[in-house]
Amino acid sequence: MARRDPMFHARVEALADYLADAGVLTDPRWRAALHEVPRGRFVPPRAYAASFLPDEPDRVIDRAADRAGWLNAVYRNFSIVTQRDDGATDPADTTGTPTCSLSCPHIAMQYLELLDLDDHHRMLEIGTGTGWTAAMLAWRLGGRNVVTVEVDKDLAEAAREHVKRVEQDPQVVTGDGAGGHPPRAPYDRVHVTCGVRDIPRAWIAQTRPGGQIVLPYMPVTGAGGHQLRLDVIDPCNTTAVGRFTGGGGFMMLRSQRTIPPGDPDTAQETTREMARAGDQGTTRMDPRLIAQADAGAQLAIAALVPGLSVGTGWTKTPAGEWAYTATLTTGDAWAHCQAPRGADEYTVHQHGDRRLWDEAASAYRWWLGKGRPDRGRYGITITHDRQTLWLDQPSTTVG
């Protein structure tokens, strides 16, 4: 078998050492899983490798043309894009939008270790993708204890073939992961490999009291993600509470996927249309503070400006100057702020039933007024009818 090859062993050991040095691989059982569930069995012959290593470029990988280069990407800290535009575009074509990837080992291992597994645990995974993490979980818990749900039927079928290559393969279900998988409930753990803005209540309902849900919380479209571990706390399975433990984003759950504002660098006409349609004002606040917010500020903005999407780029002002531009949208409302270099004030256009720039700027000032709390001070409570962010303790809601 491939995992008995000395070169394979050396590659996996080097990857495991890298993850251990980064502090995300502490459990020796997960180190063993890296050997027993070879990552390369879940990577297509041709794909696109996105690097998370310094001085390493993103690149197309092709096993037939450059096997060594393919292996170097597969067994190092690269995310491997395996699908674009829901299968309509070659994974190696960077003009397409990534819609499935094999997550980089660093972030995958962070989430797996955050599950804090015991041997008897029954596991639900949302977002099978290539099947690699599902197979890792099956090796760790036994295939009978793992069910993984994938909405894309082609990805699900490919994952079924992939997981058959490991000794204990999990059940792969084709369906919308937002609904979980009731026939196998209750679960001790739920492992979510796609970003979510609104946490589905079905996941809580299908988790045992005292069970945990680990997920990437991504409340602002176009921004980063936040690792969240939720504890289901009541016997009726309607309430969960948890804290944010770090950063880490994924592709969005498809039923919650929205299109973020386009890059203004390629949307100059849209910029002119916004300028004509919106109410014009000025601000002295740099739009980068909103669009590139610190993780703690981003959570405050997400709580106080729900449903927000953010896009950034460079556009030309009516005077012909290049300006950093942030576009905020939700529903029919939008705001558009241009910040030319060296300007004392910046132009803002707003339109719709909400003044998004005013809301976002106010949320940022709220964060400053609280002393710039970092991500680790925030948590979230989910009940049957609401999702509430809080600061320091559940009784202190944001806002």
TrEMBL record:
Q: What is this protein called?
A: Protein-L-isoaspartate O-methyltransferase
Task: Identify the enzyme class.
Answer: transferase
* UniProt keyword list: Cytoplasm, Methyltransferase, S-adenosyl-L-methionine, Transferase
Keyword Methyltransferase in the entry? The reply is: yes
CDD domains assigned? AdoMet_MTases
Indicate the family of this protein.
Answer: Belongs to the methyltransferase superfamily. L-isoaspartyl/D-aspartyl protein methyltransferase family.
- Superkingdom field: Bacteria
Localization, per the record, is:
Cytoplasm
What PANTHER family does UniProt report for this protein, alphabetically?
PROTEIN-L-ISOASPARTATE O-METHYLTRANSFERASE, PROTEIN-L-ISOASPARTATE(D-ASPARTATE) O-METHYLTRANSFERASE
Give the taxonomic lineage as stored in the record: Bacteria, Bacillati, Actinomycetota, Actinomycetes, Streptosporangiales
**Which Enzyme Commission number(s) are listed?**
2.1.1.77
Q: What is its main location?
A: cytoplasm
